[in-house]
Structure formats: C-alpha cells, structure tokens
Write a structure and sequence with these properties.
Blueprint lengths: L2 E5 L18 H4 L9 H6 L1 H14 L8 H12 L2 E6 L5 H5 L6 E3 L2 E8 L5 E3 H9 L14 E5 L8 H13 L2 E5 L11 H7 L3 E5 L12 E3 L3 H13 L1
Parallel strand pairs: 1-2, 1-7, 2-3, 7-8, 8-9
Antiparallel strand pairs: 4-5, 4-6
C-alpha cells in the first residue's frame, strides 16, 4: 500500500517553530515580515535583509528537535511503503527524525543552509547566524562578498521543477494520502490532496483547524496532531 504524507507548519509548531499564516503566525502579527521572504525586497533593501537575519537568529531552526509526529512518520516509514513525504516546511525536521532524505520532497526548500546569489557558494546556516550574533547585521558571502540567503523558495521565485514534478507524480500514484498540519490553502501544493482523491486514494486529514477539503477527505482527525498522528499510524501499521 503506497502512502504519501503531505505536511505543513502545524507539524513543527510543537518544536518551537512558529507558522506564518495562522492566528499567531509571523506574518499575521507582523505583515512587514513577509517582505523578508520576497526576493526583490530581500535583494534590494538592506533593511529587509537585516530584519531577515534577526528573524533567523531568533528562530534558530537548525537547533530545533523533531516532534513526536516527525518521529512517528520516520518510524512508520521503516515498516510501511511510504513513497514520499511532501513538505511545505523548510526546517529539515523530517530528515532529522530519520525519514529517508531521498523521499522527503521539500517544496519550499531548506533553511538549514545558505547560498550566495552571485557565486552560488553555500554553507551551514548556523555559521552565518553566528556572524550575526558576532555583530554582522547583514553577513555577506565569505568568498565573493555577494548577498547570501537561505536555500528556500522566496516569493517571486518559481518552485524547483524536479521537486514539484515528483510531488505530483507521488500524489497521482499513491493509495493513501495523509495531510498533516496543513491548512491546505497554499497552491500548487494544496492541489495535491484533491488530485490524490481524484485518482482513487484514501485521503486522511490530521489538523487542528478545518481545511477546505475536510468534506472531500475519507477521514478527518482534529485536535492535537502530536497525539492523533501516532495513534493513526499505529492503526495503519497494525
């Protein structure tokens, strides 16, 4: 039985990583913070870059530990046929929990590394943020002096074609799709859920809040997903 997971910010909030669009989300509380994730603003405005680096330094994504739900998916994947873990998150916690990196499709990239816009050099984000803590408000590429940024997909950028193609292929061919911690409102990723349903997959939503596809799903589990998801996977494995 081929299974695909589709995960969003809700699976990582228990790790101390805030979401962006929820009631207490980063962009909800501070709409200007969205500029830090917009390519033209990030590249063209030093003040926006400084704010982005302060946010990274405060968030410490690379220091966070996987949640019970991340670990449940990784353990389940050792026993079941998990074709892909498609994630909208940039925190790398699925891999940290033990999920096969080759099967984790990070649609929006990964915040644990940086890259240079000019020479394409890259390195660990923790090293760049250490420079911020040391007094560099807008650290530049140590090789060429160019602007550096997280290896994430920003607004105004296209998604990586090979990643999104692999995600659609997985959604079309799976027998079960489990959406975890996602409001299923951001496209094109949100469209993977109805696509899987259209192709005949059993569809399950595990999320604290209602989603636009609750009535389409075969099963909806509300409440604390850190409790609900492990229980669901235990049932499926049994």
């Amino acid at each position: 039985m081929s299974i695909v997971f589709l995960t969003g910010a809700g699976i990582s909030t228990a790790a101390g990583i805030p979401d962006f669009r929820g009631p207490d989300g980063v962009w909800t509380k501070d709409p200007e913070a969205e500029l830090t994730s917009t390519l033209s603003w990030y590249l063209g405005d030093e003040g926006v870059r400084r704010k982005a680096w302060l946010m990274r330094a405060h968030a410490g994504v690379w220091e966070k530990e996987p949640t019970r739900a991340h670990r449940a998916i990784a353990q389940f994947s050792q026993e079941a046929d998990v074709a892909a873990v498609i994630t909208q998150n940039i925190d790398g916690l699925h891999q940290a929990a033990g999920s096969d990196p080759a099967r984790v499709l990070e649609v929006h990239g990964n915040a644990r590394t940086w890259k240079c816009e000019d020479c394409r050099a890259s390195g660990p984000m923790a090293e760049a943020v250490a420079r911020v803590h040391a007094g560099e408000p807008d650290p530049r590429c140590p090789g060429c002096g160019g602007i550096i940024r997280a290896t994430t997909i920003l607004f105004e950028e296209a998604l990586e074609a090979d990643v999104i193609d692999a995600a659609f292929t997985a959604a079309e061919s799976c027998e079960v799709m489990i959406a975890v911690g996602t409001g299923l409102g951001v496209y094109p990723v949100a469209g993977l859920f109805p696509l899987a349903a259209e192709k005949g997959a059993r569809t399950i939503i595990v999320n604290a809040e209602p989603t636009p596809f609750d009535r389409l799903a075969d099963e909806v589990l509300a409440g604390d997903l850190q409790e609900a998801l492990p229980a669901l996977l235990d049932d499926l494995a049994g």
